[in-house]
Amino acid sequence: MVRIVDEGRSDMTKVYVDGQEGTTGLRIHEVLAERGDVEVLRIAPELRKDPAERARLLNAADVAFLCLPDAASREAAAMITNPRTCLIDASTAHRTVPGWTYGLPELCAGQRDAIRAAKRIANPGCHATAFIVLLRPLVDAGLIAPDTPVSATSLTGYSGGGKKMIEQYEAGGDPLLQAPRPYGLTLGHKHLPEMMVQTGLAQPPVFMPVVGPFYKGLAVSVPLHLSQFAAGTTPEKIQAAYERHYAGERFVRVMPLSDAATLEGGFFDVQACNNTNRVDVFVFASATQVLLMAREDNLGKGASGAAVQCMNVHLGLDEGLGL
Ligand SMILES: NC(=O)C1=CN([C@@H]2O[C@H](COP(=O)(O)OP(=O)(O)OC[C@H]3O[C@@H](n4cnc5c(N)ncnc54)[C@H](OP(=O)(O)O)[C@@H]3O)[C@@H](O)[C@H]2O)C=CC1
Ligand SMILES: CC(=O)N[C@@H](CCC(=O)OP(=O)(O)O)C(=O)O
């Protein structure tokens, strides 16, 4: 028998996860289960797609996470009548919609205050998080002009595709799934709009995600010639711009320039941030070129971790609580 918390019993912050049985929702539940400062409202499994019951719980919550496909997220947002309810949406539905605040506290000065004040928070996409963490500081510092053409590749574990892709990979037996699989080859990936809006770049990057036969872990790489930067830019200046932008950030770690020590026999480990809420930022450089890289756990800073971090910021709590 599932116990459904009787909302209204306590004065703790009430939290509801719409999509509690999905990949992102389950992980948020795991994180919240460790905490004594929030009361988690649960929907009976057989009612989890019942609009009336979802609406009731969404409006009973102080904070509601939407861990749903885009259409169901839009539906959920339209159900809110309680002005106190703060929505934190993990889907793509609202990331560039006016009235929604982008849930990346490290984006720029003032973003935490915006998240604190907002009642509608759109969590970044997993690929977009890594891309924006790399590009925004360089555009802000004037090292990259907004009209610079940029390209990016993202290597991601299959959990990024949610329950269906996880089932497909874990069923086994399909040799096609044993190799890395590039996708997004129409060059219209759903994260491109937020990548542009949040970096200030005038054109979308040429973006190729690649899904591989590992559960989680993600790394975005952005190759650039130094000639594409503002005159006089050196790898050291790029590195310094990251160090300035992320000074004091507990969830962004700027690694030493051309950090060979981080490589395993010369190979980059895309899984090294797994089970953390961290993004690691790297600048690999030669005399004429740089390769910018950012890695994260796609289910951590790329999804559930970021969502919980935003809740903490919104509530004025220690930002790393539970993470
Ligand atoms: N996985 C990842 O790395 C990331 C995912 N996201 C985004 O977060 C959102 C959730 O993703 P993820 O957890 O991976 O997806 P999943 O497919 O694993 O889970 C989605 C959940 O939503 C439920 N659901 C679908 N429609 C409805 C509805 N109408 N009402 C209530 N529940 C519904 C599904 O039910 P059922 O169990 O019946 O299928 C499922 O449990 C998506 O928008 C995704 O794109 C964002 C960042 C990263
Ligand atoms: C492997 C895989 O399919 N990954 C997903 C990204 C998951 C994600 O971040 O998507 P949201 O925009 O919903 O947050 C994709 O590229 O579409």
Characterization of this structure:
The protein is an alpha/beta fold. The chain folds into two domains: 13-124 and 303-315, NAD(P)-binding Rossmann-like Domain (Rossmann fold), CATH 3.40.50; 126-298, 2-Layer Sandwich (Dihydrodipicolinate Reductase, domain 2). 30% of the residues lie in helices and 20% in strands. The protein has nine helices and 13 strands. It has helices spanning 23-33, 51-60, 70-78, 111-117, 126-140, 162-171, 192-199, 235-245, 300-315; strands spanning 13-18, 38-41, 63-66, 86-89, 101-102, 120-122, 151-157, 181-182, 206-212, 218-225, 252-254, 279-285, 289-296. A seven-stranded mixed beta sheet has the order 8-9-7-10-13-12-11. It has a six-stranded parallel beta sheet with strand order 2-1-3-4-6-5, with helices on both faces. Helix 4 links the parallel strand 5 and strand 6 (120-122). Helix 1 packs across helix 9 and helix 4 crosses helix 9 (300-315). The protein starts with 12 loop residues before the first strand and ends in an 8-residue tail after the last helix. Residues 1-6 have low confidence and may be disordered. NADPH dihydro-nicotinamide-adenine-dinucleotide phosphate binds at residues 18-19, 21-25, 48-49, 67-70, 72, 90-91, 125-126, 159-160, 162-163, 298-299, 302-303. N-acetyl-L-glutamyl 5-phosphate (X2W) is lined by residues 91-92, 125-126, 156, 160-161, 165, 190-191, 209, 211.
Short description:
With 323 residues, the chain is α/β, with parallel strands linked by helices.
What topology emerges from the helices and strands here?
Blueprint: E1 13-18, H1 23-33, E2 38-41, H2 51-60, E3 63-66, H3 70-78, E4 86-89, E5 101-102, H4 111-117, E6 120-122, H5 126-140, E7 151-157, H6 162-171, E8 181-182, H7 192-199, E9 206-212, E10 218-225, H8 235-245, E11 252-254, E12 279-285, E13 289-296, H9 300-315
Parallel strand pairs: 1-2, 1-3, 3-4, 4-6, 5-6, 7-9, 11-12
Antiparallel strand pairs: 7-10, 8-9, 10-13, 12-13
Helix pairs in contact: 1-9, 4-9, 5-7
This protein binds NADPH dihydro-nicotinamide-adenine-dinucleotide phosphate (NDP) and N-acetyl-L-glutamyl 5-phosphate.
NADPH dihydro-nicotinamide-adenine-dinucleotide phosphate (NDP) binds next to helix 1, helix 3, helix 6 and helix 9.
